[in-house]
Amino acid sequence: MNRAWTEPSVDALKDLFAHIPTSVAVVTVGGRAGAYGLTVGTLNTLSLEPPLVMFAVNAASRLLPRLHTGAAIGINLLAAGQTDIARQFATAAIDRFDGIRWCEEYALPRIDDTMAWIPARVQQRVPLGDHRLITASVASGEINQSLPLLHWRRAFHAPSPVAAPDGQPRPDA
User: Fold this and answer.
1) What does the alpha-carbon distance between residue 115 and residue 82 come to, in Å, rounded to a whole number?
2) Predicted confidence (pLDDT) per residue in 60-96, tens digit
3) Is residue 164 pLDDT above 80, yes or no?
4) What pTM does this model have?
5) β-bridge partners, 79
6) Which terminal residue of the chain has fewer beta carbons within 10 Å of its beta carbon, N or C?
7) Cβ neighbours of residue 120 closer than 8 Å, sequence gap 6 or more
8) Sign of torsion, CA 98 104 105 109?
9) Confidence class of residue 126 from pLDDT cuts 50, 70 and 90?
10) What angle do CA 136, 44, 104 make, to 5 degrees?
11) SS3 of the chain: helix, strand, coil, percent, to 5
12) Of 111, 150, 136, residue with least CA distance to 45
């Protein structure tokens, strides 16, 4: 069957894209004198040599001007159980740090108890559609053993691993 190439509707795209599970991170800039951040669901590794990550930010985001080339950023990969933090940093016109436990590390806001912490520096901003793809060089990173917070089908989830850390199938999977 040969189908004609047609562009799907925005609603159809939203439904399709909602089925792609993503990690959830809060990207932060500034520090005690002025902390800013937003939730991103597009964080991915890009390169090992040099170490690079990438994420997308809506072109209309008020944080975008602070994500200029060379800007220091903190990437807080959220752990399962940090749904409220993800929602708070995705909400416009509020103090996103209100009630959030965080400290300043490398002069960047670091949210407490995240699954991973990645201080990085913006390398490029690439305009793509209604978003900007941000690439950032990784300065270092820390992880803990918590499970990640995932976003799938418009809801937050914690994964249920199908294999144990040693690679053996889990008996309950």
Assistant:
1) 10
2) 999 999 999 999 999 999 999 999 999 999 999 889 9
3) no
4) 0.88
5) 148
6) N
7) 53, 72, 73, 74, 75, 136, 137, 138, 139
8) positive
9) very high
10) 55
11) 10, 45, 45
12) 136
Q: Is residue 162 predicted with pLDDT exceeding 80? A: no
Residues written for the chain: 173
> Burial of 43 by CB count in 10 Å (0-12 exposed, 13-18 middle, 19+ buried)?
buried
Q: 97 exposed, middle or buried (CB, 10 Å; 0-12, 13-18, 19+)?
A: middle
User: Tell me, what DSSP letter sits at residue 163?
Assistant: B
Which residues make Cβ contacts (< 8 Å) with residue 84, sequence separation at least 6? none
Retrieve residue 137's tokens.
Answer: 């060089």
Q: What pLDDT, in 10s, does the model give residues 3-59?
A: 888 888 899 988 888 888 889 999 999 988 899 999 999 999 999 999 999 999 999
Task: Give the Cα separation of 43 and 47 in Å (integer).
Answer: 13
What does the mean pLDDT of the chain come to? 92
At residue 66, φ and ψ (nearest 5 deg) are: -80, -10
Q: C-alpha 168: how far from its chain's center?
A: 29
